[in-house]
């Protein structure tokens, strides 16, 4: 089992209206952390099954039918309320593109390090429980507009970066990889270093 701290309870996560990007490490700290990551080619031969990562588990501290995704949306929005069978209402500002979204259906919850990316980053010894823990760790889940989520499509920073909050995104990405002892490939590391040095 991985010895990492996981944010699975709302009281242990960022306060309402904030995203994990607001609490990202400084660029200098992230650069130091980046140098500790093992550089290795992506493990493309390990098959990926999204069901192994349990996206997203039930959130027992919320109303019946709510999931970790719902809890992230509630916490990271403004004026959010839970109605009916876990319908989240409120307003969100997507940090990736600055878009203001007023309907829950226009939002997605993004893994800063995507689960498919994690699957290629040295997890052959992980149990299903380890994967579920990663897939539901709210320290690294960000509520973003559906458009920016689809544009990213799980790509790593060598192939995609958000228009906004790039420094915070790169720093949080590195922190997530370090927290779970994930590897980076050389192109990924170079892209992250380039962003962080320019912050």
Structural summary, described in words:
This is HNH endonuclease family protein. One of its GO terms (molecular function) is endonuclease activity. Keywords: Endonuclease, Hydrolase, Nuclease. It comes from Amycolatopsis tucumanensis. This protein has 199 residues and is α+β, with helices and mostly antiparallel strands. It has one domain. 32% of the residues lie in helices and 13% in strands. The chain is built from seven helices and five strands. Strands 1-2-3 form a three-stranded antiparallel sheet, with helices on one face. A two-stranded antiparallel sheet has the order 4-5. Strand 1 and strand 2 form a beta hairpin. Helix 1 runs parallel beside helix 6. The longest helix has 14 residues. It starts with 26 loop residues before the first helix and ends with a helix.
Structure summarized in a few sentences:
It comes from Amycolatopsis tucumanensis. With about 200 residues, the protein is α+β, with helices and mostly antiparallel strands.
Work out the radius of gyration.
16 Å
What fraction, in percent, of the residue positions are helical? 25-40%
Biggest pleated sheet:
3 strands, antiparallel
Overall pLDDT, averaged? Answer: 90
Find the count of extended strands (DSSP E, 2+ residues). Answer: 5
Structural class, from secondary structure content?
alpha+beta
* Integer count of domains: 1
Order of helices and strands: HHEEEEHHEHHH
Low-pLDDT residue spans: 1-15
Shape: globular
Binned strand content: 5-15%
- Which strand order spans the largest sheet, edge to edge or round the barrel? 1-2-3
**Straight-line distance between termini:** 35 Å
**Count of separate DSSP helical elements:** 7
Organism: Amycolatopsis tucumanensis
Keywords: Endonuclease, Hydrolase, Nuclease
Protein name: HNH endonuclease family protein
GO molecular function, one term: endonuclease activity
